[in-house]
TrEMBL record:
It comes from Coregonus suidteri. One of its GO terms (molecular function) is ceramide 1-phosphate binding. Keywords: Cell membrane, Cytoplasm, Endosome, Golgi apparatus, Lipid transport, Lipid-binding, Membrane, Nucleus, Transport. Gene3D superfamilies: Glycolipid transfer protein. Residues 33-180 form the Glycolipid transfer protein domain. This is Ceramide-1-phosphate transfer protein.
Amino acid sequence: MADSVAVEDPKFTLQEVLDTFKSCLSENKEVFLEHYVAGWLGLVRFMNSLGSVFSFIAKDAVNKIQILINHLNGENGAHYVTVQSMVKYELDNQLVDLTKRGSFPESGCRTLLRLHRALRWLELFLERLRTSTEESKTSVMCSEAYNESLSQHHAWIIRKAAGTAFWALPGRATFFDVMNVGTPEQVVAMLGDALPLISEVYQVTEDLYVQNNILDLP
Ligand SMILES: CCCCCCCC/C=C\CCCCCCCC(=O)N[C@@H](COP(=O)(O)O)[C@H](O)/C=C/CCCCCCCCCCCCC
């Protein structure tokens, strides 16, 4: 994987992003970190194409993606091939701050947890988009999904800034166009195919974090 994050790829299509998430899971349901990170990179590219009002969100996502890439490309990269091996390696070697922020602010476990929580937002948002009508507002769907998920982990000031950015989202028709998938019917069909995959990646990761009691890493 390249050492640094490039978010300006002109060849972006949402289908490619969803294919990347599809390749995240191994046969025995391990999550490949490289594909997980690549999926997020594609999403950030998509978000960047929506305008600079989202750049503070993109910046935070890119920071976290970069931390994970650094782990993948680092001298202990072999332990970071899957999320399962990463969790085991970092916990076995006390490389995670478990109760308060300390020596390991860039552990893979806490960094991935932030993206994992955002994946739940994505799942809820895409499900709303899939079942939306021409009259539905993307800003409303986005903020409902956010309020049901990620917002619970954010400080007031972040919630405020996110809420303001949501109002700048383009309408449903433009949003579907930017996805580069085809007609609205094709977008809806693609979302129907993609959502179970995203949900499964989310659930496998969630179960792993529950089993290891690391869902609240500071
Ligand atoms: C088919 C449609 C596709 C939709 C495409 C959506 C593209 C979304 C791409 C990226 C989403 C952003 C992921 C954000 C990760 C946020 C991680 C986080 O929670 N970070 C906070 C905590 O970090 P630490 O301080 O503990 O290190 C951090 O405080 C957050 C800062 C930035 C604000 C995050 C707001 C998140 C809103 C998510 C909705 C994005 C809306 C985009 C609309 C397209």
